[in-house]
Amino acid sequence: MDIDDAATTIVPANLSPVATYDPERRQSFEAHLRELADQLLAEGRSARVGPQIERRVASEADERSSFGAACELCKGGCCQSGAYNQAFIDAAMLELYLERNTESTANDAVAAYLGLLPDQAVEDSCVYHGATGCTLPREMRHHICNVTRCSALRDLEQGEQDGKTTAVALVVAPDRTTVNGVAIITPTRTQVTRLE
Prior knowledge:
The protein has 196 residues and is an alpha+beta fold.
């Protein structure tokens, strides 16, 4: 396919700087996790995480987009929503950790999540949004994080499924006037160029 025939789309970009992790932010998130652990201890093990949810999370953990270069160029614009939702970590996520680690306690789950906080994080984004992406393994992320796609990526994936998209030119332009990067994706190669 001639690259001139490639589908072209504009993807968002996260231009927030990376900075040393704010101790107050860490303390606030730790307090959130400890509150969830206390909730689990007070309620006892519940049925929040059953086999059906386990299967769903496992399948999502394996899910990969063939347009992953878009996420690489964007640098996690969608991760910013995690800043206001405690990384979407709730009691069910701690319980899922315990289902997978049967010898662990709720406090072990808290320690595991705290141990994955990055030393440096993207400002105004999720607590796990480090300099090179999410520091949580997919199986410890909320399913929202594993399935979220920006509208540009959803359109590209739909085109691929429909057999209409075999080559793509991704243009990163956060304000739709300044280009920060370009990715050319074909069935045989991906070439990413940053213009920053």
